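Why does residue order matter? Because the sequence determines the fold. Keep that principle in mind as you read this record.
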Amino acid sequence: MAYSSSFSSHNWSYDVFPSFSGGDVRKTFMSHFLKELDRKLIIAFKDNEIKKSRSLDPELTKAIKDSRIAVVIFSTNYASSSWCLNELLEIVKCKEECGQVVIPVFYGLDPSHVRKQTGDFGKIFDKTCQNKTEDKIIRWREALTGVANIFGYHSVTWANEAKMVEEIADDVLDKLNLSPSDEFEDFVGIEDHIREMSSLLHLDSKEVKMVGIWGPSGIGKTTIARALFSRLSRRFQNSVFIDKVFISKSMEVHRGANLCDYNMKLHLQRAFLAEVLDKRDIKIDHIGAVGKMLRHRKALIFIDDLDDQDVLEALAGRIQWFGSGSRIIVVTKDKHLLRAHGIDHIYEVSLPSYKLAVEMFCRYAFRKSSPPDGFAKLASEVVLRAGSLPLGLNVLGSSLRGRDVEDWPDMLPRLRNGLDGKIGRTLRVSYNGLNNKKDEAIFRHIACLFNGKEVDHIKMMLADSDLDVHIGLKNLVDKSLVHVREDNVVMHSLLQEMGEEIVHSQSDEPGEREFLIDSKDICHVFENNTGTKKVLGIALNMDTIKTLHVYENAFRRMCNLRFLEFDSQSHYMLGRAGQSHLPENFSYLPSSLKLLCWYGYPMRCMPSKFCPENLVMLKMRISMLEKLWEGVPFTALMTRLQLSDILSLVELPSSIQNLNKLKQLDIRDCKNLETLPTGINLQSLEYLNLFGCSRLRSFPNISVNIKGLDLSFTAIEEVPWWIEKLSMLRYLLMAKCNNLRRVSLNILKLRHLQKGDFGNCKALTEASWDGCPSVVAITTDNIHSRLHDKAGCSISMAQLDFIGCFNFDHKVLFQPQTVPMQVILSGKEVPSYFTHRTTGTSLTNIPLHHISPSQPFIRFKVCALCDVGSISTDGFNTFEIQVCFRFIDISRNYFDHVDFQRSFSSELGGHLFIKDCCVPLNKDITPLAHVDIQFRLIKENSEFKLKGCGILLPENSESLGSQPCNPNILQHVGGGNTSNDAYMGGHETEQSQECAHVCEAEEDNVVNDGCRETEQSHDKFVGSNVEALRNIKRMWVRLLDIFCFGLHTTG
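Structure:
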């Protein structure tokens, strides 16, 4: 459908204006329709039952004019309202004058009755026409006839009203999507591309279709794909956009494995399904399981920047894998990949026309659709020299932005000599436009060594290079040569290739270039000893070679070498990385090195003549090292040290105490490491990883500022009392420490502690307070610090994991004065000390008469029993349990509170989740009478079942109730069951609709321990802001990632 220019350019306030008779459809069709529009993020005008008169309110008239689409719901009594008929006149006027789209819906009546004003509808209309002017009646009739003649929706033809509502909302969405999107406005002509793709996709067909998007690099394939995905995703049950970053991350588990490897494909499919289905616990055991899980789902799959046939085979091997109506769109610069997969429907992305290219360039250069006065000829020449390539237009336009017209002639000679329409030359112009040798050098460093690395890592590596890296990075961002995404510097692959070619062109002899990154060039330099002082960095992927022979004096001529990386993406168990060979008398590495990474280093100690005075990062994985240096201390500049998977490493040298800038120390899987240096304090150390050091018996004490400790699978026997000195500790991971017998509960004095994992420590029997005469004073202070979180939620509450610790008496954790915490334990029933408990999932009418109305807070413990029937394929299950409370006072007023607990487990069987809750009491209600509680699993899984729950109220409410708290509470005060705005009960609000559920007591299963027996309640229990919970969940994951994976991000 074509839209007038006025429709496209109008500044709309609403997407939809609904015109309807409230008495007929407000509580039925309209309520569902508006909910569906909200769910699809479509903005509809809502009249909120404004008082209606005979003439249209100015607010309504403006709302009609400011709406892109009018949906007219004709019902029997629509014509009884002069107001509705006058609305219709205004809608018809807007349709004729500004191209407003009109969608009629005939609800419970024949469209012909509206069109001809007959039947009951006609009789009601005739009655409304009484005492009206002839002109008014004629206009009403023409409007009714005209709108009824538009193709619309007839409710009688739909067996399912919900389906009809969804279809109408999708139709609205489709019509809205025909308008240009601001997100892609700079890519002029995007609508033409989408229109061409729509004809290939045949979205109305129920067949499964695979379509290709093909074209050269830089032509805009990904932009087109992103725009399509944005438009289409809401039409599908599941949708996902797979890019190169996703593929790379999915392959990290099997580093270096070929994609044709069966296990690699399985892992890729698991990651793919987890993304499509939004689940983390996907379990598959054979190729083709994608079909089993998606064959009944209408899915939209985009695979961007495809360059490997095996990826396509793994993710979309057959069309039979996907449900009816699914669409798989594959984006690639290699047409053969599409043909080989049987994809015949291919959209070839062409260069924009000259006119569109000029407009695109002007958008980037001037933020306008046309050039300013004096720039037209110059802009035209730049476009011609750029060959109309969108990426070239972007880069060149950005490089020229803000320059005076007088400066352009000086730049045009470069453009004339450097373009000729080829990608490399186009990008080279932008590089030359830096006009700063330092910025150019930073660009080459990133292209050859640091693309995708953290901003801080790059700044650290170039800190003393006199390159002004802080300003230089900003200049590169301004020139569109790099982007900073989530604190990582990202350079487009074409720009990276250009940078590599620039370095390659420095000399025909590899040893005369700044950087060596090609494996053949590197082997040539070492085999022929042709390195020179010009070489600054070497980056070799050991997976690409079989052997590397390094001769005795190979590095002596490379006296300025700063970055040496012999790394591997392979997991050491796969053994696919090449080997390096050194002569026995190899003794020299340049003292200029700042980064030294040598996978599989073959000698027992570092070169004797290597003085690491400038070394910032040392990474030696799977080496033969027994000691680092003979009598040579560590450099004081080092910030990151990785000595992992070194079986020959027995101890660390005492000189490690000099590493005052060390932030990360990774010694994982050094299985013969027995001791760490004592009596030292590494002031800057934040993360220490000793995972798998199975002979280490003593708890490490080398930094008071440590934030993360991973001591899992070690032989440590005790968590000592002095752990309270580690005041910054956030994570203490000690899973499967089979010798661990005792844990000091002084860990609960740590204000920042978020996770303590002691899962499957079979020998653990004791946990106690020690080393402090006044536990109460300290823990009270800690309660205050924990519960006053700036974000208003209790994410700082410590979570302790004692799953599988069957000899551990956990009751010591729940002494009255301990700090708030979350605990996960193994168990088959809710403990008896929970005075109210049930084998169901809800408790009702729990009496609260002992709670004083004057106290500001109430604290209590809740317990949920969950049974785990299976373990996910990655051995890591995630639980999120939502607990909804309704507190009811003696006057039947109420307020609601929602809490949740997120936990992890790798074990089968029963799990107890016990958590402290703290709820501010509402001052606007009378004394509390009782509380109702509902437990539920978020994203329920058939393998996870809630088997019981319980609540433990304080015996001494005065002492507990006086303690401050600021939990994640979402509350509302309601008057009995009469409030229309009640957050729980009454009419559902926007926030409550996603989470509505009913709390029904399972009377036969309730255990009564001396308290009044709970009674059945029929009150509706509605959960709270689901998105708030999701944000907290994402925060948890991010914090865990920082610790668990922080060591590899700059490797």
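DSSP finds 29 helices and 41 strands in the chain.
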